[in-house]
Write a structure and sequence with these properties.
- With 233 residues, this protein is α/β, with parallel strands linked by helices.
- The protein is built from eight helices and nine strands.
- A six-stranded mixed sheet has the order 5-6-7-3-8-9, sandwiched between helices. A three-stranded antiparallel sheet has the order 2-1-4, with helices on one face.
- A hairpin with a 2-residue loop joins strand 8 and strand 9.
- The protein is globular.
- The two termini are 32 Å apart.
- It binds adenosine-5'-triphosphate.
- Adenosine-5'-triphosphate (ATP) binds next to helix 1.
- This is ABC transporter ATP-binding protein.
- Pfam families: ABC_tran.
- One of its GO terms (molecular function) is ATP binding.
- Keywords: ATP-binding, Nucleotide-binding, Transport.
Length: 233
């Protein structure tokens, strides 16, 4: 689903990302860890087509984000730290509008309400303006759009930063459900503990390089923290 081959990005002769080789498959969650400035957002932005590689290549579902942006956009959902919504529209209206833009065919009221419910939004919030929504509620509208689009590739940039622990757990449960329906998920996060809980594999980035990739099934949270700190030393 996501594939990077010798993917590199330079800004003013400095590498923000250098020779990244990575594959994230359908039904897999991969968390990118690393200090501020390590190159996590740059990686996501290259997959999203917001940036052009200096060298190497990226593909999403077999399509190049730079040469086939529409094919990539159709299959991808991006959830940043703060999900941008139309503040004067309700959560339901946002989903209706954004799913229309995404070319979703079945957009009747019952279907969209069912999707908002699956995304964990309380039914009492469906028809409230999103200017009244908390950060966690906005994330849920983002997840609802992923469900509506049946997005095969999810890119998340510190989506739980600033969420309270319960909202963070809820969010990670929703992400796990997206994995179960076959999505590939690439998530940048600073939350080592949650990354260990939710991801199938984690990768540690340092100064633009992916220095370590680990499977989480045989790793404790403490071991991950220790390895992370060693990599940062
Ligand atoms: N548009 C840009 N112009 C110049 N330098 C940039 C640009 N975007 C990112 N960089 C640099 O590239 C490097 C990687 O940045 P990036 O945002 O990918 O890091 P990050 O791991 O996502 O950090 P954070 O955890 O703070 O979000 C940093 O040194 C940053 O200053």
């Amino acid at each position: 689903m996501f594939k990077a081959t010798q993917l590199s990005k330079k800004f003013n002769q400095n590498y923000a990302l250098q020779n990244l080789n990575l594959e994230v498959n359908a039904g897999e969650i991969f968390c990118l860890l690393g200090a501020n400035g390590a190159g996590k957002s740059t990686t996501l932005n290259l997959f999203l087509g917001f940036l052009t590689p200096s060298d190497g290549s990226a593909s999403v579902c077999g399509f190049c984000p730079q040469s086939a942006p529409l094919e990539v956009r159709r299959r991808t959902l991006y959830i940043p730290e703060n999900v941008a919504l139309y503040e004067d529209l309700t959560g339901f209206e946002n989903l209706q509008y954004l799913s229309a833009l995404a070319g979703v065919k079945n957009r009747n009221k019952a279907t969209l309400e069912d999707i908002l419910d699956k995304a964990g939004l309380a039914s009492t919030a469906f028809h409230k303006r999103t200017k009244e929504y908390s950060k966690g509620m906005r994330q849920k509208v983002g997840i609802a759009l992923a469900i509506a689009k049946d997005a095969k590739a999810l890119l998340l940039d510190e989506p739980t930063s600033g969420l309270d622990p319960k909202a963070s757990v809820d969010f990670h449960n929703l992400i796990s459900e997206q994995r179960s329906r076959g999505a590939a998920i690439l998530m940048a996060t600073h939350d080592l503990f949650r990354a260990k809980e939710v991801a199938d594999r984690v990768g540690v980035m340092r100064q633009g390089k992916l220095t370590r990739v680990m499977s989480t099934d045989t790793l404790s949270a403490n071991a991950l923290e220790e390895i992370y700190l060693q990599e940062m030393a």
